[in-house]
Specification:
- This protein is α+β, with helices and mostly antiparallel strands.
- It folds into four domains: 32-387, Zn peptidases (Aminopeptidase, 3-Layer(aba) Sandwich), CATH 3.40.630.10; 394-503, Alpha-Beta Plaits, CATH 3.30.70; 514-616, Alpha-Beta Plaits; 622-716 and 734-861, Class I glutamine amidotransferase (GATase) domain (Rossmann fold, 3-Layer(aba) Sandwich).
- The protein is built from 27 helices and 36 strands.
- A hairpin with a 5-residue loop joins strand 2 and strand 3 (90-96).
- It is globular and about 90 Å long.
- The N and C termini lie far apart (80 Å).
- Residues 1-16 and 856-862 have low confidence and may be disordered.
C-alpha cells in the first residue's frame, strides 16, 4: 500500500517510476548501514554539495570542496595534496583514524614501515599495531561510482558513532584517495550532467550514455593511469606512489566499473593467471577477504562473481602492484550505469545502485582488515623476510644497465627504479661483461639482495613460459629492453659487493655542454642522445638552420661522428656568432648533450662539412589526426611524447575536420592506430605526392595499405581448419591467439635515416597486435626487420610466432615526392618505451631526406 501511495503522489507530481526510484535511492538511508547512528554535528553530503549522493555526478571541484571541508570539521581526518594533474587539478589523500592515532601518526607510520625492513621487523610487536588500508577510487574517470561512493565513505567515517566505529578507527589507519584521475572524472561528469534531463531517460541510445571521443576514462593525455603504477610517467602516479611507499599499506582497494549488463566482481581473479612472483598466501588472504564482500553483498541483495575474467599478472595495475609490495590488492568491478539510469539485461541500472555496491564493499574491506589485522601485518612482515632470503639464494646477484652514447635513457630508468624504493648504485670502477664496458659515468647497478627483491625481478625478468595463455593486460614489460639499454644479470661469478660504488641518493640529470669553446665556423652534436630531437627542434624554434650528416666523418681533432650528426653552420644564421653560442650552451644543458665546436670543414676521413651528403633539414610541421575512429591511447602517447617530453607543437585535427582544412602548412601527418575511413584518401595521397611524410602506426598502416597509399602489404593469418571443437573452449582458444603485449627482437639498418642515433643493430620492440607486414621487394624499404627468432619476453602463440619471424617492422614507400612510413607496432607504448621513441621521431625529422629511388623501383615492380 505504501508503494502504491508513493506512485499515486508521483503521478500527481508528474514523476515516473524511475524518478521515484531515484528519489528513494539517493537518500542516505539507502546507502548507510541501518544499525549505525550518525552525529548530527557532521554535515551530510547534501549539506555541502547541495544535492544527494547519486542525484548528480560529482565534479572534481565539488569533490575538492567536500573533502577540504570534511577534513577541517573532523578530528578523525587529515588531508594532504600529493600531486597536481596535467590540467593542474589537485590530488588529495585523506588519512582517517582515531584522534589519538592522528596525534601519533608519524610514530605509527615509522613503526609500521619497520615491517618492510627485515633487519628490524623481527622486533616489531604487531599485536597492537593498526592495519593500514588504502582505498583508491575511479582511476578511470568514466567509472564514477567509485569516487561518488567515496563521498559516503568519508561521511560514514567522520560521522558514525558507537563502539564499533571507535574500535575500527583505533585498529586501522585508512588512507582514502577519492579521485585518482581528476581530469578524466571531470570530463565525464560534465558530459553526463550536461545530458541529464529533469526526467531520467534510461534508453541506452540516449546521448547521455555515449560520451564523445576520447571519453573520460583517461587522463589529460589520454593515458590509462591504471597501467602506470610501474612505468610512473605521469604526475598522478608519481605522487601517489610516493605516498604508497611512505606508508606501505596492508590492503589496497581499486574501485572500477565494467559493462552495463554485468553485475559486480571482486578479487581474487583467475588463479592460473597470478604472477608467479606473488606469494601463494596473497591469494589465500584475498579469498578470505572475499568472504566479507560476499556476505555484505548478500545482505543487500546484490549479485556478484569472483575468480573469473580478471587476473593479477601485470604489476603495473593498481590492484596488482600491492601484491609485489607485501600488501593485498583488491579489484572491484561494478556494472556501469554510464550515466544516471540505463536499461540493462538485468533491468534498469541506476547510478545510486552502483554507488551503493562500491560503498558496501568499502565497508566490508574495512571489516576484513580489522578482523584480519594481525594476519595482514604478519603477511607483510613475512613477505619482505622471505624476499630477502630468496634473494640470497638466487643465482642473479645484481643487474647492471647503462649506455655509453646516451646517458639520459639510463638516467630515466634509474629515476623510475628509485621511485619504487629500490637501491641504486654506480659501479665503483669500470668492468666488462659480454663485451660491454660499464663505467661509473654511464651505468647503474641494482643489487638484488634488498627488501624490494621481488619488484626488482618483476622489472628485469625475461619470462617466456606461462601457466596460462590468456592475459588481461600485457605479458612482458622488461625495463632494460623497453629502454634499449646495454644490460646484464650478474651472478656470483662476476659480481662482488665491492663492485658497488656510490649509492645514488640524488639522481643528477646528465651534464650537457659545448666542447671546444666558441666557433666561428660550425657546431655539431650527435643524434645518439635521447633529447637530441628536442635540441634540434629548439634550434628550429629560434630560427637557426641545421643540416644532417647522412654518412660518417672524422674531424681533425680525431673525433668520429656517426650517421645522423646534426651540423649547425655559424655563417648564414639570423643571429650573431655570440648569440648562437649562447643558445647552444642553453640547449646543450637543457638536453644533456655534448655540442662540439668545429673550426674546419676539411675532415681527414669521411665526408666534408660542405658535402651534398650534409642535407639541409626543414622544421617538422606536424598534423596529428585525432577523434572518432582513432585509438585514443596510441595517439595520446604520441601527443604526450611530442608535447610534454620534446616541446614540439603538433596540431591536433579531428578526423571529421580533415577533409575541409588546408594542408599546405604541414609537412608531416601522424596517423596513430585507428580507422580513417572518414577522411579523403585522395586528399591525403595528393598531399603526399607533393612531398609530405605520413607516419602510419598500427591499424593506420593497414588502412594506408588498403587504400593504396604506399606500397605496403600484410600477411594473412591462416584460417582455423578444425572441423569441431568444444564450444566451452571457444573463448580461451581464440584468446590464446591475442598478442596482449610482448617484446620481440628486430634488426636495424644503422645506415638508414630511420635508424640514425642507434648504435646497436638489435632493437627490442613492443608488440600488442597481430598485424604482420610483408617484407618489401625493395632491399632498402625495410630498415627494421623482425629476426628469425624474435621472442625476447612475453607470450605469443606458435602460429603467430611463425608469421612474425622475418617480417617487416617498418616499411618506407615513396609516393611521388613524399614518403609513407608504416609501423605496425606502437613505438611510444605507455610513454616508457624509450628505446623505440627514436624510430618515431626519426620518421618525423628525417622522413623528408629518405631517398625515393629504392621505393620508386618497388613502385615499378608492383
Amino acid at each position: 500500500m505504501k508503494k502504491l501511495r508513493v506512485l499515486a503522489v508521483a503521478a500527481l507530481l508528474g514523476l515516473g517510476p524511475v524518478a521515484v526510484a531515484q528519489q528513494a535511492e539517493t537518500s542516505l538511508s539507502y546507502y548507510l548501514p541501518a544499525d549505525v547512528s550518525y552525529s548530527s554535528a557532521v554535515p551530510a553530503p547534501k549539506d555541502i554539495l547541495g544535492y544527494n549522493v547519486g542525484e548528480w555526478h560529482v565534479s572534481h571541484d565539488q569533490l575538492v570542496m567536500y573533502v577540504r571541508q570534511m577534513a577541517e570539521l573532523s578530528d578523525r581526518m587529515s588531508l594532504v595534496e600529493y600531486a597536481r594533474t596535467h590540467e593542474n587539478r589537485p590530488l588529495y589523500l585523506l588519512t582517517i583514524t582515531s584522534p589519538e592515532n592522528l596525534r601519533n601518526i608519524e610514530q605509527i607510520k615509522a613503526q609500521h614501515k619497520k615491517l618492510t625492513e627485515p633487519a628490524q621487523s623481527g622486533s616489531v610487536d604487531i599485536s597492537n599495531m593498526p592495519a593500514v588500508v588504502w582505498m583508491g577510487y575511479s582511476v578511470h574517470g568514466n567509472e564514477p561510482s567509485g569516487t561518488n561512493s567515496a563521498l559516503l565513505a568519508i561521511y560514514h567515517l567522520a560521522a558514525a558513532q558507537g563502539p564499533e566505529i571507535e574500535k575500527l578507527l583505533n585498529e586501522t589507519v585508512i588512507l582514502l584517495d577519492p579521485s585518482i584521475n581528476p581530469d578524466g572524472l571531470n570530463r565525464f561528469a560534465s558530459w553526463v550532467n550536461t545530458h541529464r534531463g529533469k526526467n531520467l531517460v534510461t534508453d541506452a541510445n540516449s546521448a547521455e550514455f555515449d560520451e564523445v571521443w576520447p571519453r573520460g576514462r583517461t587522463n589529460h593525455y589520454w593515458f590509462d593511469l591504471n597501467r602506470d603504477w610501474l612505468p610512473l610517467q605521469h604526475p598522478e602516479s608519481k605522487g601517489r606512489l610516493a605516498k604508497f611507499h611512505e606508508w606501505k599499506p596492508n590492503v589496497l582497494t581499486d574501485h572500477h566499473e565494467m559493462g552495463t549488463n554485468s553485475t559486480f566482481f571482486f578479487q581474487p581473479g583467475i588463479p592460473s593467471r597470478n604472477h608467479p612472483l606473488t606469494p601463494e598466501n596473497n591469494f589465500k588472504l584475498t579469498q578470505k577477504i572475499g568472504d566479507f564482500h560476499a556476505k555484505a553483498l548478500d545482505k543487500i541483495g546484490s549479485f556478484y562473481f569472483t575468480e573469473e575474467n580478471y587476473d593479477d599478472f601485470y604489476y603495473g595495475k593498481g590492484s596488482t602492484y600491492p601484491d609485489v609490495n607485501g600488501a593485498v590488492g583488491i579489484l572491484f568491478e561494478q556494472a556501469s550505469s554510464r550515466g544516471h539510469a540505463q536499461e540493462s539485461e538485468n533491468g534498469v541500472l541506476t547510478f545510486p545502485f552502483t554507488i551503493r555496491n562500491q560503498f558496501t564493499t568499502t565497508l566490508s574491506t574495512l571489516q576484513a582488515a580489522q578482523a584480519m589485522r594481525e594476519e595482514l601485518l604478519a603477511h607483510q612482515q613475512a613477505f619482505y623476510k622471505d624476499a630477502l632470503n630468496e634473494a640470497k639464494k638466487a643465482a642473479t646477484k645484481a643487474y647492471v644497465f647503462g649506455s655509453e652514447k646516451d646517458k639520459v635513457r639510463a638516467y630515466h630508468l634509474a629515476e623510475i627504479i628509485k621511485q619504487h624504493k629500490i637501491e641504486v648504485y654506480r659501479p665503483k670502477e669500470a668492468f666488462k661483461i659480454d663485451n660491454v664496458t660499464y663505467t661509473p659515468e654511464n651505468a647503474y647497478i641494482i643489487p638484488t639482495e634488498q627488501p624490494q627483491y621481488k619488484l626488482i625481478e618483476a622489472m628485469f625478468e625475461k619470462r617466456t613460459t606461462f601457466q596460462d595463455s590468456l592475459f588481461y593486460d600485457i605479458s612482458a614489460w622488461t625495463f632494460p629492453l623497453a629502454f634499449d639499454l646495454e644490460h646484464a644479470a650478474l651472478s656470483s661469478r662476476n659480481f662482488r659487493q665491492n663492485q658497488l660504488g656510490q649509492k645514488v641518493e640524488d639522481l643528477a640529470f646528465p651534464k650537457g655542454e659545448i666542447v671546444g669553446g666558441k666557433s666561428d665556423y660550425a657546431y655539431a652534436f650527435e643524434w645518439h642522445d635521447y633529447y637530441a630531437p628536442r635540441a634540434l627542434n629548439t634550434l628550429f624554434e629560434r630560427g637557426i638552420t641545421a643540416r644532417v650528416a647522412t654518412d660518417k666523418f672524422t674531424t681533425v681533432e680525431g673525433k668520429q661522428y656517426d650517421y645522423g650528426t646534426i651540423l649547425i653552420p655559424v655563417t648564414g644564421q639570423s643571429i650573431s656568432t655570440e648569440a648562437l653560442q649562447q643558445v647552444l650552451q642553453e640547449v646543450a644543458a637543457a638536453n644533456g648533450i655534448q655540442v662540439h665546436a668545429l673550426n674546419t670543414g676539411f675532415n681527414p676521413q669521411g665526408i666534408k662539412l660542405g658535402s651534398p651528403m650534409m642535407q639541409t633539414l626543414a622544421q617538422p610541421k606536424i598534423l596529428m589526426l585525432i577523434g572518432d575512429g582513432v585509438n585514443s591511447y596510441d595517439v595520446g602517447e604520441a601527443w604526450h611524447l611530442l608535447d610534454n617530453r620534446f616541446d614540439m607543437k603538433p596540431t591536433l585535427v579531428k578526423t571529421n575536420d580533415f577533409n575541409r582544412i588546408g594542408l599546405n602548412k604541414y609537412n608531416v601527418i601522424v596517423m596513430a592506430d585507428g580507422n580513417y575511413n572518414s577522411i579523403s584518401k585522395d586528399k591525403l595521397r595528393n598531399w603526399v605526392l607533393q612531398g609530405g611524410t605520413v607516419v602510419g602506426m598500427g591499424e593506420a598502416a593497414q588502412w594506408l595499405a588498403d587504400n593504396g597509399i604506399g606500397n605496403i602489404s600484410f600477411k594473412k593469418s591462416p584460417s582455423d581448419t578444425a572441423t569441431q571443437k568444444p564450444y566451452a573452449d571457444m573463448a580461451n582458444t581464440s584468446g590464446a591467439q591475442v598478442i596482449g603485449g610482448a617484446i620481440f627482437e628486430t634488426k636495424l639498418d644503422l645506415t638508414h635515416p630511420l635508424a640514425y642515433g642507434y648504435t646497436d643493430a638489435q632493437l627490442p620492440i613492443f608488440r600488442s597486435n597481430t598485424l604482420f607486414m610483408e617484407r618489401s621487394k625493395s632491399p632498402y624499404a625495410n630498415p627494421v626487420m623482425y629476426t628469425a627468432n624474435p621472442l625476447m619476453a612475453g607470450y605469443i602463440s606458435k602460429p603467430n610466432l611463425q608469421l612474425l619471424k622475418n617480417s617487416a617492422a617498418v616499411d618506407v614507400s615513396a609516393v611521388g615526392a613524399g614518403k609513407v612510413i608504416a609501423m605496425p607496432d606502437n613505438p611510444n607504448f605507455r610513454a616508457f618505451w624509450y628505446g623505440t621513441n627514436k624510430l618515431f621521431l626519426n620518421s618525423i625529422f628525417f622522413g623528408q631526406i629518405i631517398s625515393g629511388q629504392s621505393a620508386r623501383a618497388e613502385e615499378a615492380a608492383h
